[in-house]
User: Fold this.
Amino acid sequence: MNVDHFDFDLPQERIALRPAAPRDSARLLVLDGGSTHDRIVSDLPSELRAGDLLVFNDTRVIPAQLEGTRGAARIGATLHKREGPRRWRAFIRNAKRLRDGDPIDFGNGVTATASDRAQDGSFALDFAGEEPVELLLERAGRMPLPPYIAAKRPTDERDADDYQTMFARETGAVAAPTAALHFTPGLMTALKAAGIGHATLTLHVGAGTFLPVKASDTDDHQMHAEWGRIDQATADRLNAVRAGGGRVIAVGTTSLRLIESAAGTDGLVRPFEGDTSIFITPGYRFRGIDGLLTNFHLPRSTLFMLVSALMGLERMQAAYAHAIENGYRFYSYGDASLLLP
Assistant:
């Protein structure tokens, strides 16, 4: 499809620079069948049904942005995918000053050697020493806020908490699964009381999630791979919920993409561990999910294409126009939508 179909005008003041406080006070636009109504996230127990299951991504964001030097040249690195115990693939700022074999000094005793430049301009970085790379990043890295926030304000201490979900457990993401940022212990208690369950899976979100679609046709866009895992017990639970008449509601596009990667044409979810580069556009037949809770996405993005595949392009264009007109806050720290086709 022509990528222009997924474009829309978004006023800059609609981009949220901080999350709602408390988190579950964010607004919630509900698209349920043919109806559209305005709620807040804490209303979620009344918008779902007893027997439904919310599926969260338990990945934990690492301090994946690094600033360093190669000789006199300043080099910026954003890690986006682990390739080995001490090796990460990274997007590089000022990459023209970097060659295979060059060392980069990131300060605080953290150094890495660049190699294996890829067609997309990224390098592999091999971190020196014997300390776990996670400890090195805690010393030298900072939280990788999305570019549309980082361009407007610097990262600060609040972001270390704000940009981490209450489910964060498995270290390895370089971007938060932001739909889950809206959840609080109190909301989880209310959902449980309403008979709504939850499960977790792991997809380590990569920085490629923020890359613009440069192709003019969706068929020509290449997704970056991300590593994910669904264990046997979780797959069995998802299948049991649907077999019992409940709905599987993915919390975030990352959860949805991993479930769909693990689901067969028979609609059954199977254990999964490995890379996925699934790209969902209109015409896709969903296999493993029945709904999605997600934030509001960028124009021309793969994520707006995904929600348009779930609900229909015209429906999502109208919903986003409603959200813009009614002051909803967009992107990672913004408000949410509940999409029930």
